[in-house]
Amino acid sequence: MGQQTILRLCTPIPLPERGSSPIKMASIKQLTFELNSEFIPLDSLLKACGAAESGGRAKTMVTEGMIQVDGREELRKTCKIRAGQVVSLSGMRIHVVAAGIAAVDSATQAGQ
After folding, report:
1. Tens of pLDDT, residue by residue, the chain (112 residues)
2. Following DSSP, what letter does each residue of the chain receive, concatenated?
């Protein structure tokens, strides 16, 4: 798969507008990754979504404990990430969905 095709699969999720709270939280970039197979290796997911500039950087991020999968620190570089899992890192959260689900979610949110 070419890089343009892979990057197209990562789409931002619109966040609900916040009220006029005096406390401002740092914004976290929310992405949806549409999975077209049974799984994707963690390092490949990080590269595909732009969280890492290269595969080598993605592996380093995992090794350094910078990545969480479903709220738990993940140290396996090629951990199999499947639909329904959430990958988190500093400033970014990636929701992995099965192919076709991302389009349904976007249409549902547009109708709200």
Report:
1. 443 334 445 655 555 555 545 555 568 889 999 999 999 999 999 999 999 999 999 999 999 999 999 999 999 999 999 999 999 998 899 999 998 765 555 555 555 5
2. --HHHHHHTEEEPPPPPP---SSPPPP-EEEEEEE-SS-EEHHHHHHHTTSSSSHHHHHHHHHTT--EETTEE---TT-EE-TT-EEEETTEEEEEEETTHHHHHHHHHHH-
